[in-house]
Amino acid sequence: MTHTSRRAFLHGLGGAALSLPWLESLGLAAANQKPAQRAAFFYVPIGVVRRGFFPGEADGPIPQFTSDRKALGNSARIPVGVHPLTLTPTLQSLEKVKDKVTLITGMDRTFQPGTDVHAQCASCFLTSAGTFTVKQSPYPQARTLDHILGEQLGANTPFRTLEFSSNSHKDNKESIHFDNVSWYGTGHVAPSMRDPRKAYRRLFGTHELQAYHNITDLVLEDARSLKRQLGYADQQKFSEYFDSIRSIEKQIGRLEKMKSELTKVNLAEPVEAHLPRGEYIRVIGDLMVVALQTGLTNVATFMVGPERWNTPYLFESLFDKPRSHHGMSHNQGKHIKDLLKVDRFHVAQFAYLVEKMEKIKEANGSSLLDNTIFTYGSGLGDGATHQYSALPIVVAGSGGGKLITGKHLNLTETSGPVPKKNGKYVQPKQGRPLANLWLTQAKAFGLKLNRFAESTGEVNQLLV
């Protein structure tokens, strides 16, 4: 039975539609059918505070601002190889799914001189093309990995890929290269869905509806009829699924109401700066997970925020007013405690989605997470030094048992930065190209590639 036939829809008045997850009672998939493989990417801008994120760097230097991509760390005290996973303070929220994630350190990208440091971070993250190999652009940016994967993994899905973002600001201060991680090709951006309501309607509505604020009401009658045909376990799954959809609708409604109220207030920053950041990220993330769960797509990207913009965000529970992540990153000495809070906040949103995917069961008893390779990462190793080496990378899930999990894989080819007599640090030896990870993931998904971008080989230590 094909993946397409596994997907089914409930239709209500006006053409509204909701896709269904796998349900054994309906015979939508055989229990021994191999679930689809999925790929998802969770991009965080501006790097991290290294001493909070990386094992072995807790006592590392607090970097000073520089724009010359000077590396100050690379998990110096951890030998090259595969190690048990020890969660650092920034990664603590992954504790519940510790056995399903792998921390990868020692992955580098190459900076191409002639353009802004931040401009290449997101736009080239899933490309990592070799320097000056792309002639028609000042950026080493080409077709990104998600679209290459989508050609195979998404051949039988309604959407070959889906692109999400939680940057709703309209005050664009930078070019599109600072705010997009997914590209069809050089200079051809894949626009991301940023408005939760519009994303909801794109995924679950087939017609324009006046009553779209509660779209699931249109299919509930069909749902009640269908539910009577299901076994007990499927009834529970069905209820959980519709509760999830309902929850998303309520979250969207709450954010819309809050935004409407804020427009009546005279604010120094954009209205979007005052929306609760975590709630906004989670509702966009929930939409992404549902799309993967129901087979609307098998490949998705989620860009959490833009590079370099100084427009602030309200990181609720962290600060009492909106703050600029980029602005803080340039003075770690002054803002290090607050930056560590932001890093933990971002990892917590990733962990929320990982846990959610782990709870969703597939036809063969495995979880959605088990059949996904879900990668957290940033295009900078550190927001102050702007280093392109030793990037923060976490891979959750195994893509159907293809990758190891629950480990720390260090690929750094040196013992660490060497201090000079004057106390300054020199550039350590490079690790492995980030493109090696993308090549490894592509081959784990069955793609016949010998090379991807600037890759020099596979990350064999990551493979089962």
CATH class type of the domain at 42-196 and 298-462: Alpha Beta
Percentage of residues assigned to helices: 25-40%
Average pLDDT reading: 86
Q: Biggest sheet, strands in spatial order?
A: 4-13-5-12-11-3-10-7
Label the overall shape. globular
Alpha-carbon distance between the two ends: 28 Å
Work out the number of β strands.
Answer: 14
Which range does the strand content fall in?
A: 5-15%
Q: C-alpha Rg, in Å?
A: 22 Å
Topology-level CATH name of the domain at 42-196 and 298-462? Alkaline Phosphatase, subunit A
H/E element order: HEEEHEEEHHEEEHHHHEHHEEEEH
Largest sheet: 8 strands, mixed
SS element count, helices: 11
Runs in which pLDDT lies below 50 for 5 or more consecutive residues are: 1-6, 206-215, 415-421
**Category by helix and strand content:** alpha/beta
CATH architecture of the domain at 42-196 and 298-462: 3-Layer(aba) Sandwich
Summarize the structure in words.
This protein has 464 residues and is α/β, with parallel strands linked by helices. The protein has a domain at 42-196 and 298-462: Alkaline Phosphatase, subunit A. Helix content is 28%, strand content 11%. The protein contains eleven helices and 14 strands. It has helices spanning 3-6, 50-53, 119-123, 145-153, 196-204, 220-227, 232-262, 277-293, 325-329, 332-359, 434-444, and strands at 9-11, 17-19, 38-43, 81-84, 101-105, 107-108, 162-165, 183-185, 188-189, 299-303, 372-377, 393-396, 407-410, 432-433. An eight-stranded mixed sheet has the order 4-13-5-12-11-3-10-7, sandwiched between helices. A two-stranded antiparallel sheet has the order 1-2. Strand 1 (9-11) and strand 2 form a beta hairpin. Helix 8 (277-293) packs parallel to helix 10. The longest helix has 31 residues, at 232-262. The chain starts with a helix and ends in a 20-residue tail after the last helix.
